[in-house]
Amino acid sequence: MRHYLKPALFVLCALPLAWLLLRAFGIGGLGLGANPIDELQDRLGEWALRILLATLCVTPLAVTLRKPWLMGLRRMLGLYAFAYLLLHFLTWFVLDQWANVTDIGMDIVKRPYITVGFAAFLMLVPLAATSTRGWMRRLGARWHSLHRLVYPAAILGCVHFWWQVKADWREPAVYAALLSILLGWRVLRSRRRRMTVAAAHAS
Known about the structure:
CATH topology: Four Helix Bundle (Hemerythrin (Met), subunit A)
Largest sheet: none
Structural class: mainly alpha
Strand content: under 5%
Radius of gyration: 19 Å
CATH class: Mainly Alpha
Shape: globular
CATH architecture: Up-down Bundle
Distance between the termini: 43 Å
Order of helices and strands: HHHHHHHHH
């Protein structure tokens, strides 16, 4: 099972994009509805957030299940999350705003949900760029510090989604709750580690 999990997960992460492409090109009588650009943009953003949260689930699962090999899934999931986020951004930048830098700049400044979404995107750019083993060796301990940006990026992503929805806030609330649990688990784990180290020094 271990050897098949990564390829299977790779395919699963690609399926939403394949489905959106089929709808975008009207294959099989499918479509994106009355507002195709908004539909494409929203679905790409939602999948970016879902896969980002799945990425943050890997460490708790690996520790809880005592399966350290699961950690090998984080890089692939993280890159998939960024790919969906990049497509979400490009859909807005090119198809929605027609690459009008002036209007885009005004939207980023004046619309809070765009401000936090753009900030989350910028935080994830260096993480995707330095995701290789080569960059891990070059940056050393700084690599782990840099990649902690995933936490504020995930928070801003949830805020962006929550502020963007007009009425039904149930789905963003579920994502925010899951993120709170994942971050809380990390805080407790870090606290236990510090207490263990302090006890060892005291003895």
